[in-house]
Amino acid sequence: MTTTDQKFHFSIDRGGTFTDIFCRLPDGTEVVRKLLSEDPTHYPDAPTEGIRQLLEEYDTSSQTYPRGQPVATQRIGSIRMGTTVATNALLERNGAKMALLITKGFQDALEIGNQSRPDIFDLTCAKPGLLYEKVVPIDERIVLQEYTPAAWSQQYESRKGVTGESVLIVQRPNLPKIRNDLVKLRDQGITSLAICLIHAYVYGEHETMIGELAASLQCFEHIALSHRINPMVKLVSRGHTTAAAAYLTPQITHYLTSFQQGFDEDLKKVPLTFMKSDGGLAPVHDFGGHQAILSGPAGGVVGYAKTSYTAPTPVIGFDMGGTSTDVSRYAGSLEHVFETVTAGVAIQAPQLDIHTVAAGGGSRLFLERGLFRVGPESSRAHPGPVCYRKNGYLAVTDANVVLGRVIPKYFPSIFGPDEDEPLDVEGARRAFEALTALPEANGRSADELAYGFLQVANEAMCRPIRNLTQMKGYDITTHILACFGGAGPQHCCFMAKALGMKKVLVHKYGGILSAYGLSMADAVHEEQEPAAETYMGHLRVSGEERLQHLADRAVAALVQQGHAKESVVVERYLNLRYQGTDNSIMIREEPGKSFDQLFRAVYEREFGFVLEGRDILIDDYRVRSIVPGSTPSIPPPPPNKGAPPAIDTTRAYFENGWEEVPVYKSEDLEPGHTIQGPSIIVQPISTVVLEVGCSAFVTASGNLKISIGSSEEKPVEEDEEIKEDPVQLSIFGHRFMSIAEQCGRVLQRTAISVNMKERLDFSCALFTKNGGLVANAPHIPVHLGAMERAVSFQVDYWNSEGREGIKEGEVLVSNHPQLAGGSHLPDITVITPVFYEGEIIFFVASRGHHGDIGGISPGSMPPHSTRLEDEGAMIVAFKLVRDGKFQEEGITEILQAPGKLPGNSGTRNLRDNLSDLRAQVAANNAGIRLLKELVQTYGLRHVQAYMGFIQKNAENSVRLMLKEFARKNGARAHAIDYMDDGSPIELTVTIDPETGSATFDFNGTGHQVRANHNAPPAVTYSAVIYSLRSLVGQEIPLNQGCLAPIRFIIPERSLLNPSAEAGVVGGNVLTSQRVVDVVLKAFKACAASQGCMNNLTFGDEKFGYYETIAGGAGAGSTWDGQHGIHTHCTNTRITDPEILERRYPVLLREFSIRPNSGGKGAHPGGNGVIRELEPLRPLTMSILSERRTLHPYGMNGGEDGACGRNLLIQKDGTVVNIGGRCSGSMDVGERLRIETPGGGGYGPVPSNDAPPLKKTRQL
């Protein structure tokens, strides 16, 4: 068909390596072109050159298109583009020189973030660098009026915010001072500004004032105001998003300016649009950096959604590139998320729900510690895989080449010094042959090793697909796999088999599907406003008016772009959440249904339940106006023509070994042709590998519809010995950890409390039938070893003489630290047996911190408790579920039992306790379902055998580390450190250098104390397993095998092995950190980190709140300590300042990095933080902390970190040091200021003339 305007229409995906161009010619013919994105010797800009080439080749008019001159545009009908310019600038940190202007007291809010570290076992605590170069604290303050004392309304001016909430203007910005600050920024070379003030999403006037002042100076290229960039609550996320806009938009503007200069002056008449992260097209002037993060991948999602979906069968998109793989899901509408983290930056904007895994064609291959490992390191384009002939790294592409699954003679000869040689098969083979000498090769040939790596790579890419579907309750086997990207078709059949999927679709434009998707994308404009209302079963008149106002603006924006008003479709949304929760769900309006009906349906599908009796709150009004793009029609299937003639045969390696298989070229295939696997189909820019048992049918549109054969594992005979296989070991490692991770995601989704849903204070794990830890998702380190003790205790307890045993349909619960393997009472463990053919085969368990379980103080973290009974409800063994029924009455009685003791209370939040316990049961059930699927796939004996093998692998890794330490440092290590009360924790490690066994002897540790920082043995086991895993320094399975080489000696009635009635609530959160300090000190690993969790609770008879606060990380031999980050035994998040002030009657006066608190050294320790809170009504505030007397140690000549301080600032300004543990009532006008410890320094302080050392490690 011809184009209606007889012009050329271009859709371009400018990627990091290649630029793909899809062009519809005036006569309707479709052509494609692929160019290198960077080729400065031939052209300055790839998209411009691609357009020029196609016009020159296909324009039959007299117009010429000479290279080096502006391209004539009169024959161009439209240009659509997706680009990775913003993504690459973010990843490489090469955006604009920008500064952040933020409310005073929060100048470090973006650096602290949510205070968690990306990798809990990375002692360097590496995190991505900041986007801004300068930060300017703005002395201004807006306060939400709801909780403020009545007198404040007389003292401060009140204004109505956009949400309808009233705010008080406590401090207006000092514009003359700010002007001076802006001039200084200009003089320092700052060209872009991000302005983010607290509560600006409600009242943005202060941001507007500063923005106008900055604009009047006419020296800043871009000024981003947070309430315009993204008017949503959460200071940190909105700040990151605003910073991203200021950092990236100038880069995009520069690129667009350069692009436009490649055309003549009539380009302004050509519709030029860009793909946003939400899958919609926007004009140049409406394309900000924060909207462009997923610009490239979004086109691919639109492409497969428009070409692969036929209702009602959902589709999984699988886009495999060189360095990473993107997966997504489509079931009739684009699925959006509204907060994601990219390159360490939280982006709060509508984005397609795309999950990325660091596994692609360029992912490097490692054979180490008994495992096959794929990625996350990448060989990248330079030097690339070994077969690229640039002295590169062994990678996934090399495996495909060596195994004949990529055929060099059908691949461009662009390699070698003169870029004219084919892929180097022999070089890649030699690299694999070098691996055969390693013990992990286990006698495998080079070919078998290569195939093993492919199996492991495919499992790594299956993992996010499982997470995307199974964790949301979708059956993965009912989906079609839509495969695209240059490397995807080589792996899609293999992966579909592993996932149990029956159909795969490879589009004829699969290698450039992002560009093709752009040609069909919708034009979109969104408008959104925050709200603070209760949904009362229908929209209020004011709500209807707000939505209509937003719709009018959104439609007008599209009309202004040249679209007809009648072509615009309007979608209306409310962002809803239950009162008392922070997770909002964006609900699209549907005819005949109310918003609350839709919300409850989505909530129940996602989380498995609804919250009865709770109000539904409106957080945002949103409108999305759309001009729908084209959707290609799907012609009827052609008649079957049988097999086409093959153009060649080749030897390729499949599941049964080497086979001689036919080779086909896609351009020779006709609709109706059917190709049986194993075989290879060569496409112009990719290769399709048809596995054994698969068949491909060529559709009327020229796409490949592949039917997947069965992938049954060969059954293991009952008497056949199951031998350990490194490939299977790696695959099972992925599967076990994936199940534990999915349990965690279910728990996060289904929990109610802030502790579990927001702070993520929980852990999920899998265990053998005897209670041995198999896989623990990396959630909270202090839970790592403790849960194994809890599970094994329950197994022994219920199976002991005279007890009833454990039956199917039952769920166990416990929390007692000394008697039942608990950590402290607020951490409640829910344990579910996995039955198979009437026998227990595994256990699944989840441990979560409950915000209150009774005791003498709100939050159940009393600073001054001396007996366990003062700390809340105690559960040694109870069946939470019997015969499939939740025992609400029984568990309620247990949780209320502390109230029978003088001075104690039962739980103060029973509703949340019960909801969170149900969430833990649901998380366990998810694990059971997935474990049973694993057993059905591989057989019980096989799964149980690999549970044992995976534990043995972890054991061997720890033994190797211990032997290496003994070789370098001797067979004995010793360290001692002290709690603030002077109690010593002493450790002597004795290592057998031959076997790698070790004794961890804690003799010399102080007596148990009449306080609450006694720690049950399970806490010590957790601290040691965390330390050992961190010392190994490489990815190894996290399970009980890590402790198998260790014999513990922990004296009874000591600080680390107290009596059953001793108080222990502080042992889990304080002493655990000191145990880690002592272990790392003995192994000379690094200086001490803050050594504390800084536990703060506050509340009254109506509510309780709990948080832990970050501090400084210790420095090491090659790294500086990080500032303001959680270390070692915890990694919980902290509540966003705006959420905190919106939900609780407190004012957060300051949350910043504490300067000069890190110890000096060749590598200085990280600084702690300052957190200052003011109650807005009388509240009980309690602090439980350490390192207030004794400093975090420096190492190897580095200085100690600063001690922390807890200060009460009284109404008259008097400052009182309240010590490390304090609880009391605070009145309005008083402030609690917590200054957390810094980390120790490493190495002597360098002299002034010494060369600078390597700075803080960043991702």
From TrEMBL:
EC number: 3.5.2.9
Domain Hydantoinase/oxoprolinase N-terminal: 10-215
Segment forming the signal sequence: none
Region (Disordered) residue spans: 1233-1259
Domain named Hydantoinase A/oxoprolinase: residues: 238-526
Domain Acetophenone carboxylase-like C-terminal, residue spans: 548-697
InterPro entries linked: ACX-like_C, Hydant_A_N, Hydantoinase_A, Hydantoinase_B, Oxoprolinase-like
Protein name: 5-oxoprolinase
Organism field: Fistulifera solaris
